[in-house]
Amino acid sequence: MIVDNNLVVSGGVSATGTLTYQAVTGASAVLSTNTIDLLQNREMGVGEDLWLRPLVGTAFAGLTALTVEVVVADDAGLTTNVTVVGSSGAIPVASLTAGARFAVDINPRIGSKGQRYMGARYTPTGTGTAGTLFVDIGIEIQDANTGAKSYPAGFAVL
After folding, report:
1. How many CB atoms lie within 10 A of CB 44?
2. Pick from 77, 1, 66, 2: nearest CA to 37
3. What is the helix (H) or strand (E) element at residue 146, kind and residue range?
4. Which domains does the chain carry?
5. Cα Rg for the chain, rounded, in angstroms?
6. Residue 153 in this model has a pLDDT that exceeds 60
């Protein structure tokens, strides 16, 4: 999986490749720390499926579920004329353990919505007391079990 720092919406990547995470706690919706300006000249996966790719840093606690949405808006603060263009649905807290990954499909018609900025919104069910996310946008999804699926047990790759 390749991470483009210009497509990170929550958290960040240091010069040494270390990930930082955004805290998502409390009882109300939390917006991503970063937004993507859709008017900037950049490759946004033309002809490819786009995915919002959350990675849990600190396990979530104190809530029953978390919904992750891809949103577009007229302002960089993601508060004016907000439109949801992808949603995870409610993810149970038991699935939000440290290292857990999931993906949210982004509607390919983001350009036709007319909003300039794209980011994420995290909505807890219950009151979150712990939990962090690193979230970016990409065209591929990493499967943590790829090695187990690709090679049988005891098989050596030289």
Report:
1. 17
2. 77
3. helix 146-150
4. 5-142 (2.60.120.1110)
5. 16
6. no
Return phi, psi of residue 150, to 5°: -85, -30
Beta bridge partners of 102: none
Q: How far is CA 156 from the centre of its chain?
A: 34
pTM: 0.83
CB 24 within 8 A of CB 124: yes
Task: Return left, alpha or beta for 17; rule: phi > 0 is left, psi -120 to 50 is alpha, else beta.
Answer: left
109 close to 91: Cβ distance less than 8 angstroms:
no
Q: Which helix (H) or strand (E) holds 125?
A: strand 117-130
Measure CA of the first residue to CA of the last residue in the chain; give whole Å.
22
Q: Which residues have C-beta within 8 Å of that of residue 140, sequence separation ≥ 6? A: 1, 2, 51
Compute φ and ψ for 94, nearest 5 degrees.
Answer: -60, -20
pLDDT tens digits, one per residue of 19-67: 999 999 998 999 999 999 988 866 665 667 889 999 999 999 999 999 9
For the chain, the farthest-separated pair of C-alpha atoms sits apart, in whole angstroms, at 55
Query: In sequence order, what E strands does the chain have?
Result: 8-10, 12-13, 19-20, 22-23, 30-31, 36-37, 50-56, 61-73, 83-92, 104-106, 117-130, 132-138
